[in-house]
Amino acid sequence: MSSELFNANPTVFSSTKSTSSRITEHSAQSLWLRDQNDNSDTESEGNEVEEIDQDEIFDLIRTIYDPEHPNTLEELRVVSAPQITVGRNHIKVEFTPTVPHCGMSTLIGLSIRVRLLRSLPSRYKVDIYVKPGSHQSELSVNKQLNDKERVAAALENPPLVDTVEKCLAKPSSVAFQLV
């Protein structure tokens, strides 16, 4: 990874209060594929399906850290609740890079995808996109983020997985070194 900062002086905003979420992260899950024998996501009690809303998805991704700065995606206004669309079994997240030439956009999108894959029942299809017109390589970034084989290949790269884990880390365990 390059030591060049794509946005050396980002604008930082205050975060909003967190609402309680009914979704918890599965820390023992793999990054991409779920265990074939794991039935925890199935509807075990009748046909009762717990609905997930936009605010719960926002709560999951708002605390992801930017790969370049010790700030969350919410603080940098990379993600917001209105950028999330929730359907019956489909979630679309749109994010806004801090600069149009951000080289970390695919890493940010990958971090969002991993957090949602770890946290949501497997019945959900997740699409991650950069906000239209917000990145100079918008089509390429969107293609990488939504291609299952590319994502799986990226998650087999140990240094990349380590970086994603740092972005997903809890605040007390995050240690960023800006060069």
From TrEMBL:
The keyword RNA-binding does not apply. Transmembrane segments: none annotated. GO terms for cellular component: intracellular protein-containing complex; iron-sulfur cluster assembly complex. The keyword Ribosomal protein does not apply. SUPFAM superfamilies: Fe-S cluster assembly (FSCA) domain-like (SSF117916). It comes from the Eukaryota. Residues 1-30 have a biased composition (Polar residues). Signal peptide: none annotated. Residues 1-49 are annotated as: Disordered. GO terms for biological process: chromosome segregation; protein maturation. Residues 55-125 form the MIP18 family-like domain. Keywords: Chromosome partition. InterPro entries: FSCA_dom_sf (IPR034904), MIP18 (IPR039796), MIP18-like (IPR002744). Residues 38-49 have a biased composition (Acidic residues). Belongs to the MIP18 family. This is MIP18 family-like domain-containing protein. It comes from Ephemerocybe angulata. The lineage of its organism: Eukaryota, Fungi, Dikarya, Basidiomycota, Agaricomycotina.
